[in-house]
Amino acid sequence: METLGEKFQRETKYRRGKKPPSSRVLSYPEEFKRYAQAPVVRLPFLQEGTGPGVWGVMIQRRSIRDFLPEEISLETLARLVWSVGGIRERQGGFLFRMVPSAGALYPLETYIMANRVKGLGKGVYHLYVPTFSLEIVAAGDRSEALTRAALGQGMISQAAVVFLWTAVIDRCRLKYGERAFRYIYLDAGHMGQNLYLAATAMELGCCTVGALFDDEVNEILGVDGREETIIYMGVVGVPASGR
Ligand SMILES: Cc1cc2nc3c(=O)[nH]c(=O)nc-3n(C[C@H](O)[C@H](O)[C@H](O)COP(=O)(O)O)c2cc1C
What we know:
Helix content is 31%, strand content 23%. The protein is α+β, with helices and mostly antiparallel strands. The chain has one domain: NADH Oxidase (3-Layer(aba) Sandwich), CATH 3.40.109. It binds flavin mononucleotide (FMN).
């Protein structure tokens, strides 16, 4: 019998001579999500960076799950955020980012949970991409709840910062129908890898996280789980045993 996953693969295939699978689009989402009423933290960023070249970073990259209870600076956070959500260049009405995205539609939203960031209160923040700013979604320590929502993985609370990527499904579905789900997951992989590489380049530890209770994470973020839903997470912190 065909499994759910196999059915999904089959029904979202491109086939010659057949139209791509269409779907009912729930809404026409904004290009950029914004918490217009939220207090905003502008992120500092310096273009120039130091550290090893790309080949050195790739070979050093590994999943790190044990962290020291040390803070990272706001500038370090800004570099991490830049690696996944920064605008690389503006061209022909498109704002191209640091990560590739199918159709340059960028369905993924970036949230962070700050545990230990110098000068940034504990809480959940949302990246407003056009101004490279963090909007405060929920102030206060939510690390215990997020740890539970990540199947009890202790690195969620230990890490200096947790990245959470949701998808605004219709941003991609408008163009690609149900095939959008494939692209959303692929986009998320690029986010995760850029975060790994940026963290490694700054001698920080990183581990991406797919094991999570979707509904619980969605509730922490205050998203409905249908139009916008959690896809993937990643933790970054000062590694306990060096790199
Ligand atoms: C999609 C995905 C989901 C993952 N989820 C988790 C997770 O929930 N918890 C965890 O400890 N590691 C998780 N990892 C990290 C993998 O366990 C790790 O990449 C793998 O063991 C290979 O080790 P390396 O990253 O050090 O090369 C995930 C990795 C990927 C790509």
